[in-house]
Amino acid sequence: MILRSVLYQMLLWCIATTIFLALLFLPRTADYTAGPRGMFISAKYDYSAQVHVQQFKDFFKYIKDNKGLGTVYNGHSLNENILRTFKKSMLITIPALMIGLFLGIAKGVFDFRIRSRRGKLFGVRTTRFFLSIPDLFLIISLQLLIMEGYEAGILPHIKVYGSEEPSVILLDIIFLAIYPLFYIANITYFSIRDEQGMDYIRTALSKGTSSFKVLYRHVLKNCYVKIFSHTNTITLYTLSNLFIVEYLTNYRGAAFFFYETLASPAIFRTGQQFEISLYPAAGYIILFTAIIFISKTLSQIAKGLVSPIERRESS
Question: N or C: the chain end with fewer CB closer than 10 Å?
Answer without folding.
Answer: C
